[in-house]
Amino acid sequence: MHKKYNYIFIALIFTILFLFEDCASGPNYINEGEKKYKVKDYSGSIEDFKKELENHPSNDSAYLMKGKAENLLGKFPEAVDDFSRSLEINKSYDAYLNRGIAYLSLDENENAETDFSSAILLKPLRDTAYYCRGYVRNLLHLHKEAIADYDTAILINPEYQTAYVNRGNIKSDIEDYEGALQDYTMALDLNPNDIHACFNRGYTLKLLGNNEQAVSDFTKVIELSPNNAEAYNLRGEARMILKKFKDAIADFSALIKLNQKDARAYFNRGMSYIKLKNKKQGCTDLTRSSELGYVEANAELTKNCKATVKSPKKNKHKK
Questions:
Q1: Which of 204, 263, 265 minimizes the C-alpha distance to 230?
Q2: Is residue 265 within 8 Å of 259, Cβ to Cβ?
Q3: In sequence order, which residues have a C-beta less than 8 Å from that of residue 135 and are 6 or more positions away?
Q4: In terms of CB atoms within 10 Å, which end of the chain has fewer, N or C?
Q5: What is the predicted pLDDT for the residue at 28?
Q6: Within 73-142, where are the H helices?
Q7: What is d(CA 45, CA 51) in angstroms, rounded to the nearest whole number?
Q8: Residue 85 above 70 pLDDT?
C-alpha cells in the first residue's frame, strides 16, 4: 500500500504555542519577557521569566510562559518541569494543554493524553484540546476514541480544517474509505490548496476505483508540488487503468527524471509502451526494470519480449 501523507501536526503545535494570552500584570521582567516572546526572541524571554521568578517564585504565569518558550526551542524536559511548577500553583487549562504538547514531543503519549483530558475537564468547549487528544489517541491506536475527539472538535468549530484531514486519515486507516472521502472533501472545501487533503483524497478515490477524479486530484498535487514523485506514480497508475497509456508514459517519464533508479517506474512505463504496441521501447524499459531488481519485470520480459531477445550464436566447428 502506498504511504499516505500524514498531516503535519507540529505546525499546529507551534501556532498554539505562539497564541499569546495576557499574563498577570507585574514587574517589568515579565512585561519584557512577554514582549520578547511576541517577537520570537524565546531565549531572551526565558531569561526575563527567570528573573521574574527570582523575585516572585509563586508566579504561575511566569512558569507557564517560560515553559511555552522552552517548548518552542525544543527544550521539552525543561518545559515539562516549568508547566508542572505552574500547575502546582494553579491548575490551569493552558498549563495542562502545553504540558501535553511537551509530553507529545517527548513521545510520552499516555502522559500527553492525560494532560489533554485534564484540559478538557477545565474547559470542555475548547476545540484545540479535543484536537490534540484526538491526535495522540490515534498514536495510541485508540481509533474510535480519536474519531470521537475530532467529532467534538468539529462540532465546536465546524471550520476546523485540519481536524477533517486527520479524521479522514484515521477513517482511511480503518478502511472506512467513503467516510475518509467525505472528510477530505470537507477539508478541501475549506482550503482548496491543502496538498495533504488533495493527495489523500486522490489516493482514496483510486482505492475506490474512481480513477478519473483521482487523476484530477493528483494533477492538483503536482501543480502545488511539481517534484512529488508519488503523485506522478499514482496518477500514472490511474491513467493506465483508464487505458490512457500515452499520458501514463508521460507520468512515468517524469518520475524517472526525478529518480533514474525507480525500477517500478520503468516497469510501468514499459508495460504502457507494450500496450501501445511499441514493443522495442517497452522491452527496453522492462529490461532496465529487471536490472534494477523489480522481480515482476522478469515474467513480462519472458511473455512479451522473446522475439526481441537475441540468442547467443553457436560456434560452428569444422569436422
A1: 265
A2: yes
A3: 9, 104, 146, 166
A4: C
A5: 79
A6: 76-89, 93-105, 109-122, 127-139
A7: 10
A8: yes
DSSP calls for 152-170 = HHHHH-TT-HHHHHHHHHH
Cα separation, 293 vs 196, in Å, equals 31
Give CA separation, 118 vs 112, 155, 182, in Å: 10, 20, 31
Cell of 20: 499569546
Buried residues in 264-289 as b, exposed as e (16+ CB within 10 A)? bbbbbbbbbbbeeebbeebbbbbbbb
- Residues 99-132 pLDDT 10s: 999 999 999 999 999 999 999 999 999 999 999 9
Give one DSSP letter per residue of 226-269, joined into a string: TT-HHHHHHHHHHHHHTT-HHHHHHHHHHHHHH-TT-HHHHHHH
Residue that is written with C-alpha cell 512558569 in the block: 63
| 267 pLDDT higher than 90 | yes
Given a contact cutoff of 8 angstroms between Cβ atoms, the answer to whether 282 and 274 are in contact is yes
* Domains defined for the chain, CATH in brackets: 7-123 (1.25.40.10), 143-191 (1.25.40.10)
Please give the distance of CA 80 from its chain centroid, rounded to a whole number: 26
> Using the 8-state DSSP alphabet, how is residue 309 labeled?
S
Work out the percent of the chain whose per-residue pLDDT is above 70: 87
C-beta of residue 208 within 8 angstroms of C-beta of residue 179: no
Q: Compute and round to an integer the Cα radius of gyration of the chain.
A: 28
Residue-wise burial string across 200-233, b where 16 or more C-beta atoms lie within 10 A, e elsewhere: bbbbbbbbeebbebbbbbbebbbeeeeebbbbbb
Q: How many helices (H) and strands (E) does the chain have?
A: 18, 0
Query: Are the C-beta atoms of 166 and 150 separated by less than 8 Å?
Result: yes
Count of CB atoms situated within 10 Å of the CB of 58: 11
